[in-house]
Design a protein that fits this description.
A hairpin with a 5-residue loop joins strand 2 and strand 3. With 372 residues, the chain is an alpha+beta fold. The strands form four sheets. Strands 1, 2, 3, 4, 5, 10 and 11 form a seven-stranded antiparallel beta sheet that branches. It has a two-stranded antiparallel ribbon with strand order 6-7.
Length: 372
Amino acid sequence: MPLEAFHASSALSMGVELELQLVGEHDRDLASAATDLLELAQRRQFPGDIKPEMTDSMIEVATGIHDSHATLLAQLRRMRDALVADAARLNVSLCGGGTHPFQEWAERRIFSAPRFQQLSGLYGYLAKQFTIFGQHVHIGMPDPDSALRVLHALGRYVPHFIALSASSPFSQGSDTLFDSARLNSVFAFPLSGRAPFVLEWSRFERDYFVRMEDTGIVRSMKDFYWDIRPKPEYGTIELRVCDTPLSVDRAAQIAVYLQALCRLILSGEEPVPVEDDYLVYTYNRFQACRFGLGGLVVHPRTHAPLTLREDILTTLSRLKPHACALNGQDALTALHDMVAAGRNDACRLRAVHARSGNLLAVVDHAVEAFAR
């Protein structure tokens, strides 16, 4: 069937999706509580959208459409408060973080929904290993060609979002030495990575999507696990590389960073993307996953090496007028302070483990950070 038409949306509007961990009150392992928590949330009017995810120890929540940091943050906080209250009735807790520090993937159970069961049959053990937790951010685009241009211009900034959100240093009981180990699980899927370099929507549909559909590999945009993908049914682009931050405040700040970057790109302040920009893409993405803010990346045009920390700080300075126009300066100030200090969420979790020597304490810290 043809690709769905690119729907009209409010340019630079934003929405956030968060995948959250459900953990036991006492053992702090992942808890199979998604069905019960969803039922409780649906008994009253949940202040957002809530649905199951791949395994029954996780849920996904989503905001509505927002133009400003203030309203987005207010809804995220309302959703958090409702979730924390409902989870307490079930003797479970919720937290962010891109991975659970010590859960065993083989113990997970696929959620009993047809799509998840189908994916489990297709991907085998990878489906259970997909018990990882990310933040997705949607930004409204004025038209489909602009969506593709912005998507590819953002490729240079994908490592920023990995480093800013990185919160998955531990996996299967070990320090992975990565700031974002979560993305290693995503890379295992055959339709992950980056979108094909096409700048016109008509060509994307005719020369790529229809041909892929003819192979029988894909049926909709949902089948692509790209780092950034267009979402024609919403009229947005969707950034998918972020770990779920430890707090909803950080999640809102990251969304505003993306919103301001999209405004900068749409204003014409960035060069038109070319395919050679992707020559350094995989290397830079690895540096961000492995070393976070300390990663050493290569500028796609000048080939100059620079740390992600200094690159993000320079970009934040460039974004000041755009943040002011969007009423998002408070969000970017908070990100600036975090980057200047060189301490993302992965650093915070490692510091807890260094003090305690205990991964239970790491989960405790994540639970407390989410509830605040």
